[in-house]
Structures are given as C-alpha cells and as structure tokens.
Amino acid sequence: MTRQESFKRRVRARMVKTGEKYGAARRALIDQSDESGRRWVSQPEMADAAVREATGRGWDEWCGLIDAWADDATGHSAVVSYLIDDHAVDGWWAQTVTVGWERITGRRLPYQRPDGTFAVSKSRTMQVHAADLRQMLLSDTDRVDLFPGFDTNLRSRPTTKTLRLGIGGGYALFDLAPVDDVRTKVTVSHEGLTAASEVEGWRDYWDRWLEAIDEG
C-alpha cells in the first residue's frame, strides 16, 4: 500500500468516527501530522533553509498549506498557480515548491517529471572544441562511433542551439557551452525514460560517456 492510499484510509476512518466530511477530516489529520513531525517519502532537491529564506516558509509548512488546499486530483500546474496567485510566490520558486511537495508526499518520485516520465542529467567541462563535438553529434556516421551499440536519430534542427537525439527509448539533449578556446562545458539531459529503474543506469552511462569524450 502506498503512503497516499494509507492516508486516505485514515481519513475515511476518522470520518466514520467523528462524522466529519472528507475535507475536514483530511485537514485535521494533516494538522496532526505537522504537529508531530511530517514523514517525507523522498527528499526534495532544495534545502529547507534555502526555501525558507526565499519564500518565508519551510518544507513542512508549505506541504501543510498545499495539502489543506489540494485534493487527490489536483495537478502540478494547479498547485503552481495556487502558490503564485494566493501566496505571491515567484514563478521559479512556485515550481520548486510544487516539485518538492510532490516528492515529500510521494506524488512524484526523484527524477520524475510532471508527465510521469523520468530524466537524468550529467555535465562535465572537458578539453574539446564545442564546434567539433557538435559536428560529430550531427553526423550519422560519427554517431555510430560516439554511441556504440545504440541507434540514434536527430530530433532537432541542425541549427538549434541545444541538439536533441533519440537514444535508448528516450532522447538526449546536448548543451555545449564554450568555456575558453580549448574547453567546453557539456551538459547531457536524458529525458523520456519510462521507469525510475532506468535512471541510475543512464546516469552511469553518461558519466562514462563524458569521461571517454574528455580523454578522447
């Protein structure tokens, strides 16, 4: 049983015991949880102190507010709008707080995106010319050597700043930022993964891939 299903059962049990409506019973249990210390299903990316400094509230406070307002059908965008409209939270921080709430309450797993897919990102500053690596990524022939064992296809226009390649059932976004005449910061974001179990494998793959390109 997931934490969310367990919580629903507790709400219904309280309704039977007290005669309260669902919303009132739910809010009462949330208040009790906040008083006794909330159990986090997974950790948010942003530290509690940073969120409090930027927004005036810490994670447990934000989770209590959102839990009291939202229901089980409330989506990501609706929560973001609620934070912006009702609590005057800056747009970027509204997104951050919403994702953190989703992780803490178990609505979103680590690395999971709003559409339910997963993504992983790696970056490295290396001794490679951005133009040279870009040309290799654009070349069907060179990609055979760059990604042995994988079929790849270009999913963006060749002139697009961030190149997008189909690979491994998802797609990889390549951002090549020149640091100086000989170094480039290469960031790879692999998106469209369908399961959390794929994340660590691809994280390791891209870590080794960047190291191999750097050693060249």
Features:
216 residues, alpha+beta, 5-stranded antiparallel beta sheet, 9 helices, 50% helix
Layout: helices, strands, pairs:
Elements: H1 3-18, H2 22-36, H3 48-55, H4 59-69, H5 76-87, H6 91-104, E1 118-126, H7 130-138, H8 140-146, E2 153-154, E3 163-167, E4 170-178, E5 184-193, H9 199-215
Antiparallel strand pairs: 1-5, 2-3, 3-4, 4-5
Helix pairs in contact: 1-2, 2-4, 4-6, 5-6
TL;DR?
By secondary structure, the protein is an alpha+beta fold.
Describe this structure in words.
The protein is of the alpha+beta class. Helix content is 50%, strand content 16%. The protein contains nine helices and five strands. Strands 1-5-4-3-2 form a five-stranded antiparallel sheet. The radius of gyration is 22 Å and the shape is elongated. The mean pLDDT is 88.
Low-confidence region ranges? none
Q: What integer value in Å does the Rg equal?
A: 22 Å
Q: Into which percentage range does the β-strand content fall?
A: 15-25%
- Give average pLDDT, whole number: 88
Total DSSP helices: 9
Tell me the strand order in the biggest sheet. Answer: 1-5-4-3-2
Shape: elongated
The main sheet comes to: 5 strands, antiparallel
| Gap from first CA to last CA | 49 Å
Helix content: 40-55%
SSE arrangement, N to C = HHHHHHEHHEEEEH
Structural category is alpha+beta
- Tell me the number of strands: 5
